[in-house]
Amino acid sequence: MHRNPDSRTERQARAAWLAYRRLHERVDAEIARDLERECGLSMPDYDVLAALTELESPDTCIRVRGLAAHLSWAHSRLSRQLGRMEQRGLIAREPCERDGRGDDVLLTKSGRETVETAAPTYNSSVRDRFTVRLTPQQLAALIEIERAIAKGQ
C-alpha cells in the first residue's frame, strides 16, 4: 500500500502537538500540586508573584496591562486573579501616579515573603519534575523550539 507522505507528516505533527499538550498539562499539574501542598499557592498565584518580583524596580511602576502582556494572559483573567490575591493581602493595586490612567500592581510585604518562601519549592519542583528528566541537548532543543514559534508571532 502506498503511503501519502503528507498524511504521515500530518500524523506526526498531530502526535507532536498532543505530546506537547500532555507534557505541559502533566508537568504543570505536578508543580501546581507541590506549590499548593507546600506553600498554599496556586500556580497562577506563583506566576503573578514571580513576575512582579522579576519586573519590580524602584523607578518602575508595573501596570496591569504590562503585567498581563508579560504573563501572556488576557487582561480579564489577570484582573480576576489580582482580585483574589488582593483579598489575601499578597498584592495591592493603586492608581497610576504618572498619568492617572490604569492601575499599578505592587507586591505587599506579605506577597514578597510568600514568593521568597515559595521560590525554593517551585525551583525544586521544576528541577525534579522537568529539568533532571531531560538531557542538556533536549533542554536546548526546547529553547530552540520556543524561539522558533515565538518568531512567528
From TrEMBL:
Pfam families from the UniProt entry: MarR_2
Q: Show where the HTH marR-type domain sits.
A: 9-151
Q: Which GO terms describe its molecular function?
A: DNA-binding transcription factor activity
Q: Which GO terms describe its biological process?
A: response to stress
Q: Which SUPFAM superfamilies match?
A: Winged helix' DNA-binding domain (SSF46785)
- Gene3D superfamilies named among the record's database cross-references: Winged helix-like DNA-binding domain superfamily/Winged helix DNA-binding domain (1.10.10.10)
Q: Which InterPro entries match?
A: HTH_MarR-typ, MarR/SlyA-like, WH-like_DNA-bd_sf, WH_DNA-bd_sf
Q: Which PROSITE patterns match?
A: HTH_MARR_2
Name recorded for this polypeptide: HTH marR-type domain-containing protein
Native species of this protein? Nocardia ninae NBRC 108245
